[in-house]
UniProtKB/TrEMBL annotation:
Residues 148-213 form the HTH luxR-type domain. SUPFAM superfamilies: C-terminal effector domain of the bipartite response regulators, CheY-like. The modification 4-aspartylphosphate is found at D55. InterPro entries: CheY-like_superfamily, NreC/VraR/RcsB-like_REC, Sig_transdc_resp-reg_C-effctor, Sig_transdc_resp-reg_receiver, Tscrpt_reg_LuxR_C, WalR-like. Pfam families: GerE (PF00196), Response_reg (PF00072). Transmembrane segments: none annotated. This is Response regulator. The keyword Transmembrane helix does not apply. It comes from Kitasatospora misakiensis. Keywords: DNA-binding, Phosphoprotein, Transcription, Transcription regulation. The keyword Nucleus does not apply. Residues 4-119 form the Response regulatory domain.
Length: 216
């Protein structure tokens, strides 16, 4: 299956390099390019790519706001690009529903793998830097509203275990191994958790698990 990608990056040279890397992969298709946040939102709504590779700092509309609009419209999964690994802009993007984030200085293979990971719905939680970001900004003492706590209380014991594993940054395959169940069953549990808690992405579920102090 071909994965359609929209590249949103305001620096022309960086954008060209990203596009060149992606076009070298037979299963990736660059369907559009955006030089600012407003254009990124417009093209995402128009082209409906599988993944938007979104720079976090762009003119006219920043990457966080653009991510929020793209995710709210259900237009695509968003994978955020940033220069700094502990950037509060990135945390805002994750809260806005981004499926994960990558650093701009990563290797080409890691970029491609990240896009494939997000496209199949398995958020970018594996890299240690992502875990550090979540661990730094999403503390258990953060206030979780009563409605959210009530929704979490309605989860089954197994769903709570899966939610805790998501919070620890485990992939579906790792969760399946940890809890001794099929990976397809894990995916079903993850989908149900997101639906029950009204979350937009796996990363939001991970942040919530951290906020609640869930442990595995």
């Amino acid at each position: 299956m071909t994965i359609k990608v929209l590249v949103a990056e305001d620096q022309a040279a960086v954008r060209a390099a990203l596009v060149m890397i992606l076009r070298a992969e037979p299963d990736l298709e660059v369907v559009g390019q955006a030089a600012d946040g407003e254009e990124a939102v417009r093209l995402a709504l128009e082209l409906r790519p599988d993944v938007v590779l979104m720079d976090v700092q762009m003119p006219r509309l920043d990457g966080v706001s653009a991510t929020r609009q793209v995710v709210a419209a259900g237009a695509a999964q968003v994978l955020v690009l940033t220069t700094f690994d502990l950037d509060e802009y990135v945390y805002g993007a994750l809260r806005a529903g981004a499926a994960g984030f990558l650093l701009k200085d990563l290797e080409a293979d890691a970029l491609v793998d990240g896009i494939r990971t997000v496209a199949r719905g398995d958020g970018m939680l594996a890299p240690s830097v992502t875990r550090r970001l979540i661990g730094t900004f999403a503390r258990p003492e953060r206030r979780v509203g009563p409605e959210v706590r009530a929704a979490v209380a309605e989860l089954t014991p197994r769903e709570r275990e899966v939610l805790a594993c998501i919070g620890a940054g485990l992939s579906n395959g790792e969760i399946a191994g940890r809890l001794a169940m099929a990976e397809a069953t894990t995916k079903t549990h993850v989908s149900r958790i997101l639906a029950k808690l009204r979350l937009r992405s796996r990363v939001q579920a991970a942040i919530l698990a951290q906020d609640l102090g869930l442990m595995i």
